[in-house]
């Protein structure tokens, strides 16, 4: 007997309570993704082969997961690295010139991949003059060439002090969150949540507060009445148990993840698309606000590119630009676009191809980064 179940009514009720449906691609890999994720989530990392590291998005990925690459062997410098007296060998987050050099020298076997956000890496080396092998966890620093390649937080065009600030305060969780829309596979969110617990009545408190502001983001002003699950209630102080209204702020998922110490949050490209569609329909997406407004509201994965274009004096683009075919059907949505010159940047591969078929010059984020560094 075949049993059919209709969950439409159940889903409709859940949606009214603030849940949001996300479609994920489930890929079966019999080599064991569980072992891969266990390795990638640890400070020890996962040994990878050069041919398996994907650099097409500009940032690094392995089996569809965004990763960092680091060298566990710190050589004779191991004592100073473990004690914190020396920074050690840098970890990589992008397809920078250092990695390109390593690739040409076929030295990728020295690297391990991880998406652990603790900032601690399992390293080893030989202590001299005792010639004793030592190992342990150390806090490594990010590669400056990677920051330059991505123009991360404006690093490329920043002053000396601004570059030092970006480098010194680099946060892995925040970095991974910035580029989360480029990936369909993301680590379990539970592993990224900040410390602290909500009060027992938090669900009721959150719902009532969002209702009190008519389900409108108090940062970008997007009305999420139709998608309440994409509107969060943020604790301004960071204390999850301080639920008085002065400490609460309704934020869409995009604005919420941009708050300090919220790098653990992830947003998919589909979720970002829904938010920007609503922003556009409500007249919140336009280029008249200048580059500052474009950078604030566009997908964070494009932040470095947009900061670079702004520094070069380019015209401000349209955010969330839709392209229609001859039948006036929307066939593509570009993250940003310059309609006058028929140029744009797209994250979704299908939308990119559809735009190109209409005669547009559209780049992926990875191709745009290559062009910026060309």
TrEMBL record:
One of its GO terms (molecular function) is endonuclease activity. InterPro entries: HNH_nuc. It comes from Mangrovimicrobium sediminis. It comes from the Bacteria. Keywords: Endonuclease, Hydrolase, Nuclease. This is HNH endonuclease.
């Amino acid at each position: 007997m075949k049993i059919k179940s209709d969950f439409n009514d159940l889903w409709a009720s859940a949606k009214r309570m603030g849940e949001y449906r996300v479609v994920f691609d489930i890929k079966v890999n019999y080599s064991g993704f569980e072992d891969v994720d266990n390795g990638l989530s640890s400070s020890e990392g996962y040994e990878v082969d050069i041919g398996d590291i994907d650099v097409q998005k500009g940032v690094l990925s392995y089996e569809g997961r965004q990763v960092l690459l680091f060298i566990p062997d710190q050589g004779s410098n191991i004592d100073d690295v473990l004690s914190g007296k020396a920074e050690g060998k840098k970890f990589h987050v992008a397809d920078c010139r250092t990695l390109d050099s390593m690739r040409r020298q076929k030295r990728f076997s020295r690297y391990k991949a991880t998406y652990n956000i603790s900032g601690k890496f399992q390293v080893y080396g030989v202590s001299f003059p005792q010639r004793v092998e030592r190992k342990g966890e150390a806090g490594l620093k990010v590669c400056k060439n990677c920051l330059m390649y991505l123009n991360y937080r404006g690093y490329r065009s920043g002053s000396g002090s601004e570059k030092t600030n970006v480098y010194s305060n680099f946060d892995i969780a925040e970095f991974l969150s910035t580029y989360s829309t480029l990936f369909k596979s993301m680590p379990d969110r539970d592993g990224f949540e900040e410390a602290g617990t909500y009060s027992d009545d938090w669900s009721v408190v959150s719902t009532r507060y969002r209702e009190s502001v008519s389900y409108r983001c108090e940062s970008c002003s997007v009305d999420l009445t139709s998608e309440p699950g994409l509107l969060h209630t943020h604790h301004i102080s960071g204390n999850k148990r301080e639920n008085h209204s002065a400490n609460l702020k309704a934020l869409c998922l995009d604005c919420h993840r941009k708050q300090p110490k919220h790098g653990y949050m992830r947003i998919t490209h589909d979720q970002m698309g829904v938010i920007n569609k609503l922003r556009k329909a409500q007249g919140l997406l336009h280029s008249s606000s200048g580059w500052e407004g474009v950078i604030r509201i566009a997908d964070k994965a494009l932040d470095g590119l947009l900061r670079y274009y702004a520094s070069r004096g380019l015209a401000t683009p349209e955010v969330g630009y839709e392209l229609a075919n001859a039948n006036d059907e929307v066939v593509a949505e570009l993250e940003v676009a310059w309609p006058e010159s028929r140029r744009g940047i797209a994250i979704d591969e299908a939308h990119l191809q559809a735009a190109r078929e209409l005669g547009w010059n559209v780049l992926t984020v990875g191709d745009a980064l290559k062009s910026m560094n060309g």
